[in-house]
C-alpha cells in the first residue's frame, strides 16, 4: 500500500497519487467540504466526456 | 472587522486622529463589502424594474442583514444609480438618508427565513430605519432543518414565488442543504439561487466543477451559484466581472469618499465658524454678513493658529 502524507484536496497530490489513472477514488475525510473538494479536483484531472474514474464521497 | 459597529467606530476615530503623512490604515467590514459584491455579481432586479420583486433571504446573520440592507438601498435608488458625486456612504440607509428615496409605487418584498426572524427583522428596522420605506419584510420563523421549511407553503407571497434567493448561512454545509432544498422546491420557476460560502474550497469547488455541466434535461446539474465571501470582500472595488467604473474613476471615487468622511469628522465645521463670526460681529455692532454676494467683503486670509483659536 502506497501512502502519501499530503493534502488530498490538492490536485498535484492527486496527480502524484495517480488518481487520473485510477478507476475508483474514495474520499472519507472527517470534513464534508474536504471530501467534496477532493471529488471536484479528481473530476478536473479526468475531464474526458466519459470518465472512467468513479468517486465515492463520504 | 467582523463587527460593523466596531469597524465604523474605528474608522471614525482613526480618520479624526491620524496625521496626513505616513502609512495609512483602512478598516473594512467583510459583510458590508461582501454583500455589495454579492449583489453586484448576482443582482436581484434590474434598474428599470417597475413591478414589485420578491426576494428570499435565508439566514439573518451579519451577512443576511447586510444583504437586506443593500437590497433595500438598491431598490430605493434604482432609477438614481450613484455616480461619482452621488455615491452614498455605506451608512446612508442607516440614517435614512438614501438619495432619491422613493416611497411611491410597488415596494420590494423580502421574505426572511431565520430561527429568530422576528427579533432580527426588528433589529434591522431599528438599525436601518430607511428600510421601512424601501421594502416589506416578511418574517418566516423557522430553521432550515425543521420540517416546516420543507413544506414550502411559506414561499408563496401573493400568489407569486421569489425570483431571487440568497442563502446567507454561516455554516457551508447547512447553506448548501438549504440551497438544494430550495432548488427542488422552485424547479418550475428556476430562480437564481446564490449560496454564500465562507471560502473557495470544499463545497464551492464541487459546485463550480459539477454545477456547470448540463444534465440530460439541458439544464445545469445544480442551479446554485456559490459565492465565496473570502475571495470578494477584500477587493477595494468589490471585484466585478465587468467593472462599470474605470480604475481612474475608482481612485477618484475613493478620494471623494475619503474627503467626504474627513469633512464629516472635521472638529470645526464651516457653518459653525460662520455662526460664531456672526455672533461676534453682531455683538460689536458690525454689519451682518448676510446680503447679496456682491456686497460681501473679502476678508484677509487667517493664519492657521488664529483660525483654530
Characterise the protein shown here.
- The complex is a heterodimer of chains A (58) and B (309).
- The longest helix of chain A has 14 residues, at 32-45.
- Chain A is built from two helices and two strands.
- Chain A is an alpha+beta fold and 58 residues long.
- In chain A, 34% of the residues lie in helices and 14% in strands.
- With 309 residues, chain B is α/β, with parallel strands linked by helices.
- Helix content of chain B is 39%, strand content 11%.
- In chain B, α2 crosses α3.
- The longest helix of chain B has 18 residues, at 247-264.
- The chains are: A alpha+beta (58), B alpha/beta (309).
- The A-B interface holds A 9, 31-34, 36-37, 39-41, 43-44 and B 172-173, 201-203, 205-206, 208-210.
Could you name the key traits of this structure?
heterodimer, A: 58 residues, alpha+beta, two-stranded parallel sheet, globular, B: 309 residues, alpha/beta, 11 helices, 6 strands, 39% helix
* Average pLDDT taken over every residue of chain A: 85
Q: Compute the number of strand runs of chain A.
A: 2
Low-confidence stretches of chain B: 82-90, 96-103, 237-251
What is the oligomer described by this structure? Answer: heterodimer
SS summary, helix count of chain B: 11
What gyration radius of chain B follows from the Cα positions, in whole Å? 24 Å
What is the count of helical runs of chain A? 2
Fraction of residues in β-strands of chain B: 5-15%
Amino acid at each position: 500500500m502506497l501512502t502519501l502524507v499530503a493534502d488530498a484536496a490538492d490536485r498535484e497530490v492527486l496527480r502524484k497519487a495517480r488518481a487520473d489513472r485510477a478507476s475508483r477514488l474514495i474520499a472519507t475525510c472527517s470534513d464534508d467540504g474536504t471530501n467534496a473538494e477532493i471529488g471536484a479536483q479528481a473530476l478536473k484531472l479526468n475531464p474526458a466526456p466519459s470518465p472512467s474514474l468513479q468517486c465515492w464521497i463520504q | 472587522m467582523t463587527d460593523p459597529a466596531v469597524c465604523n467606530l474605528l474608522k471614525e476615530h482613526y480618520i479624526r486622529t491620524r496625521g496626513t503623512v505616513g502609512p495609512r490604515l483602512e478598516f473594512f467590514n467583510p459583510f458590508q463589502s461582501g454583500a455589495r459584491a454579492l449583489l453586484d455579481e448576482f443582482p436581484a432586479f434590474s434598474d428599470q424594474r417597475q413591478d414589485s420583486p420578491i426576494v428570499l433571504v435565508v439566514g439573518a446573520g451579519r451577512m443576511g442583514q447586510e444583504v437586506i440592507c443593500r437590497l433595500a438601498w438598491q431598490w430605493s435608488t434604482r432609477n438614481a444609480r450613484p455616480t461619482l458625486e452621488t455615491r452614498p456612504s455605506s451608512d446612508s440607509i442607516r440614517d435614512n438618508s438614501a438619495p432619491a428615496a422613493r416611497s411611491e409605487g410597488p415596494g420590494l418584498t423580502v421574505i426572511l427565513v431565520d430561527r429568530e426572524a422576528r427579533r432580527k427583522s426588528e433589529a434591522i428596522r431599528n438599525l436601518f430605519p430607511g428600510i421601512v420605506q424601501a421594502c416589506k419584510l416578511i418574517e418566516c420563523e423557522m430553521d432550515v432543518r425543521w420540517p416546516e421549511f420543507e413544506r414550502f407553503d411559506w414561499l408563496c407571497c401573493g400568489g407569486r414565488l421569489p425570483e431571487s434567493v440568497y442563502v446567507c448561512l454561516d455554516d457551508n454545509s447547512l447553506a448548501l442543504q438549504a440551497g438544494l432544498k430550495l432548488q427542488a422546491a422552485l424547479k418550475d420557476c428556476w430562480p437564481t439561487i446564490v449560496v454564500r460560502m465562507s471560502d473557495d474550497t470544499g463545497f464551492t469547488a464541487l459546485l463550480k466543477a459539477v454545477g456547470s455541466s448540463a444534465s440530460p434535461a439541458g439544464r445545469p446539474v445544480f442551479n446554485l451559484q456559490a459565492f465565496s465571501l473570502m475571495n470578494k470582500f477584500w477587493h477595494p472595488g468589490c471585484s466585478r466581472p465587468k467593472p462599470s467604473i474605470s480604475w481612474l474613476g475608482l481612485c477618484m471615487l475613493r478620494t471623494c469618499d475619503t474627503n467626504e468622511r474627513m469633512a464629516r469628522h472635521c472638529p470645526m465645521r464651516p457653518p459653525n465658524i460662520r455662526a460664531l463670526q456672526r455672533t461676534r460681529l453682531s455683538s460689536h455692532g458690525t454689519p451682518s454678513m448676510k446680503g447679496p454676494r456682491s456686497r460681501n467683503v473679502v476678508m484677509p486670509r487667517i493664519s492657521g493658529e488664529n483660525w483654530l483659536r
